[in-house]
Amino acid sequence: MFAADIRDFVARQGLAGAVVVNVASTEPAPADGSLPPSSLYAAAALRAGCPYVNFTPSTGLHHPALAALAESSGLPYAGRDGKTGQTLLRSVLGPMFLQRALAVRAWSGTNLLGGGDGAALADPAAAAAKNAGKERVLADTLGAAPEGEVHIDDVPALGDWKTAWDHIAFDGFLGSRMILQTIWQGCDSALAAPLVLDLARLAVRAREKGLSGPLGELGFYFKDPVGDGPSSLAEQYTELKRFADRLRDDAETHEAHR
To answer: Which GO terms describe its biological process (predicted)?
Structure first.
């Protein structure tokens, strides 16, 4: 039914095609093997012939039951969980500590946010799904996950604005113990919107080029990216630029032969 709805939308709007981007509230990870809503919509997107982008930490195409469909669809897909604030900063700072041989002993954080996200993440199961991506960034960039957790608090008065605080304990030369603290205050919608637009355009171009499967080159945008790729933001950006240049060159070649 969902796939038919997508096809009907494309037909009614007179579109050449569509991209399905999941920006819904975070859902808890499924505990019983059943397909959660995000996976049902992901499957519908592929069955409707649409590239799929999961901008949330929800399961989406990460469900084992959808592996065969994802492979056989011949469509590109990307995800998951947009990297817009605290984790964006972590993906920059993590490599810095590693490259300067500063041993991170603990990395703890707190998120204060309101709006729909704050309400959804008040559910401990949804918060756990969200934090898994944040923890992966540190494990990937530092080589191992340091001590510490991220706590998410729903503060309705903040609305769409989020405050993220990180406390990092690390050792310097001769074991000198030091602390770095960061505060990130941002508007979630304003941070996410341009990334969603980028991803939709890149997914369309990838499909036009005939690419299929996980677009690991888009890891720059995600906390928990699909496919293989670097974890450092700088390396991810270099890979993204190469990918964009490749798509642009193909498009220019196509136009030249028309």
So the answer is: inositol biosynthetic process; phospholipid biosynthetic process
